[in-house]
Amino acid sequence: MTAEILRILLLLAQLGFVALLYLILMRFAGSLLRDLRSAEEAQISSRSGIGRLSVLESPADEPPNGTTIALGPINSIGRNVNNTIFVEDDFVSANHAMLTFRGRSWFVEDQGSTNGTFVNGHRIERPVALSFGDELTIGRVRMRLDR
After folding, report:
1. Which of 12, 60, 103, 130 minimizes the number of CB atoms within 10 Å of its CB?
2. How many angstroms separate the first and last alpha carbons of the chain?
3. Rg (the chain; Cα; Å)
4. pLDDT-derived band at 42, boundaries 50, 70, 90
5. Rounded to two decimals, what is the model's pTM?
């Protein structure tokens, strides 16, 4: 009789161990799903950006007139296709300007371009803080910084 009790106890211990393994696996799977969902939400919010550039005028139509470009914290602007914001214009340098978000403000900095970078019609020589609604001119392309 003690052998039967021992077998029953062993079977219950095995079933308990299997149940514990399933519980651990289910918690692990739930944790992975939560991480995937939060990563997806972060990707969606990063696509919406922390600011936008609205293209007001673009003679070569690259970027197209009326386009809204979502901005990340660091944005390179120029004629080189590896820039964050590609601008097809003969008056734009390959690496023309940098648009960065620092603290609570946007800053634009000319990268030694030949034709210069303009904010609200004024040529800039050093990094300049931007406000929403300011116009940025790169070559012949005019863009406005929006929320």
Report:
1. 103
2. 79
3. 28
4. low
5. 0.66
